[in-house]
Amino acid sequence: MIRDARVLQPEFVPREVQHRDAEVNQLTNALDPIVDGERGETAFLFGPSGVGKTCIAQYTVDRLREAVVDIESQYVNCWQHYSRFQALYHILEGLNRTTDVHRRSTPHDELLGRLQAYDGPPYVVVLDEVDQLQDAAVLYDLYRVPNLSMILVANREEELFVDLDDRVVSRLQSARRIRFDHYGEDELVTIMRDRVDWGLDPDSVSDVQLRRIADAAAGDARVALGILRNAARDATRAGDDTIGDDVVDGAIPGARREIRQSTVETLTPHQRTLYDVLDEYGEQSAGELYDRYTERVDDPMTRRTVRNYLSKLVQYDLVISDGENRARTYRLTR
C-alpha cells in the first residue's frame, strides 16, 4: 500500500503547498529584496502547532533558491540548539565554517566574528521555535551580520518578546508578521489527499476516511498526517488493500502518543525537569512546582522563565493549566 513513506513524514516539504497561498506570498514579499542583492526583511511566522509554519518557511526558501542561483540557507531548530553557542555554531555550520571550532573552548565572540566576516552570497536562516533560545541576544548578534536574513518561527508572539532587551525589541517591531491559523476540516482533507496520491496506492483510502482523520486532528496537520501514517502502516501489516474506519480509529491513539513522545524528547533539560516533576507528583500549584524544580537543578531559571516554559508545554498539549494567577495549577495531559 505504501509506495513512498517519505511524503507521510512531518518534515516532508512538498513541491506545492495547499491553503497557504496568502502566507507564502507575504513571506515571498519579505524575502524579495534578496533577488536584487539586498537584505530581506525579517519575517516572523506565528500560530499554533501543526499549521504549516515550518513547512511554509522551508518551502518559500526553496522557491527563493530557484530564483537566486547563488544563495545559502540554514534551518535551525532552537529547541535542539537553544544556547547562544549552539545556535551560532549551527548557523556557521551552514556555511562550512566550523571545522576548527572547539565546542568547549571556542568563545562566542569568535563564532560571531566569523559570521560578521562572511562576505559570500545572501544567507537566509530559519530559526524555528525561536522563543526557545535561552539567550535571545543571539537575535541581536544576527541583526549585525550584513548579508543575513532571518525567518523567525514561534507559536505566540508574546512568548518571544517577554525576555528581549530593548535593542532586539526595536529591531523586531519592524519585522513582517505572518499569522497562521488552524486548518479547516476540508483543508486537511485536501492536504492528506495530496500525500495519499504521492505516497499510497490508488484507492487505498477514501475521502470518508480522510474526513474522519481530519475531524480527529482538530485543525492540526501534524496530527492528521500522523494518524494517516499509522493507519497506512497498520493496514499494510494486516495485509489489507484499503484503510477502513476501524483501522483509522485504531490509529488515532497511537499517533497522538507518538507525537507526544517525540515532543517530550525535544524538551530542554529545564523543561524536561518540570515535565518529570509533574509526572511524579501529579497536579501542583505553580509555587509547588517551582520549589520542586529548583531542588532538582543546579542553576534554576527565574519564575518568569519557568512560567514561559510551562506555557510552551501547554501549547504543545503536554500540560494542562487550570485556574488563574495564584490559583493556577498544572498537570500532565493524559
Automatic annotation (TrEMBL):
Domain Orc1-like AAA ATPase positions: 17-146
The keyword ATP-binding belongs to this UniProt entry's keyword annotation: yes
Gene Ontology BP annotations: DNA replication
Domain of life: Archaea
SUPFAM superfamilies reported for this sequence: P-loop containing nucleoside triphosphate hydrolases, Winged helix' DNA-binding domain
A molecular function GO annotation: ATP binding
Keyword NAD: no
Record InterPro entries: AAA_16, Cdc6_lid, ORC1/CDC6, Orc1/Cdc6_arc, P-loop_NTPase, WH_DNA-bd_sf
Segments forming domain Cdc6 AAA+ ATPase-type lid: 190-251
Keywords: ATP-binding, DNA replication, Nucleotide-binding
NCBIfam families found in the cross-reference section: orc1/cdc6 family replication initiation protein (TIGR02928)
Protein name, per record: AAA family ATPase
Organism for this UniProt entry: Halomarina oriensis
